[in-house]
Design brief:
It contains 6 helices and 4 strands, in the order ααβαααββαβ. With 199 residues, it is of the alpha+beta class. A 4-stranded antiparallel sheet has the order 1-4-2-3. α5 packs antiparallel against α6.
Amino acid sequence: MFWQATVKNSKKFQSFIIVVIAGFLVGILIGSFLMLIFLPSVPKGVVIQPSPIISQIESRNIANKVANQVSRRAPIVTEPVSTIPIVLLQLPKNLIDHMGSDASALFLDEVSFYESLRKYLNKIRECYAAERKVSPLLAGTLSYDVTVTASGAVIDVILVERTLASTEVINCVTGILKSGVYRRTMKEPRTFEVTLVFQ
């Protein structure tokens, strides 16, 4: 009778163990299923932040490659350096070197000339902007020798050097410089360097 009770209890224990194991396995399956449903996934096209060990150049190349593969678009083309046409007046080095020192007659004469030249920069920029519509990558410099009388009238305008490849802009700028009237402080003709930077 004792043996029968022992066997009966052993069967109950085995049944209990089987139920516990089965419940454990079912719990794992349910938990995995819920994780698959509710765990947020990384959206398509999103590039995960690379390891700090990877250099910035390598990271940029990897990101671009992944973005291009996902979107199947051509790589982005770099825009010109300046989207808005800009014209800068580059002052001569000797004038910059004398700034802050005692104002000589030559220095005051140069300052007067370049200050009066500034009022024509907007017209020069309009020449450049018109050609930039046709050639968006057009850029460079034009360097002139402008000879002016004591009264400010122009005697001669000579194109000394150029990196800007546009005959239209050159003709337009030369015409503006020739027609200008400039402020002078000295009583004799003088030649001034005019360097314009087009960006």
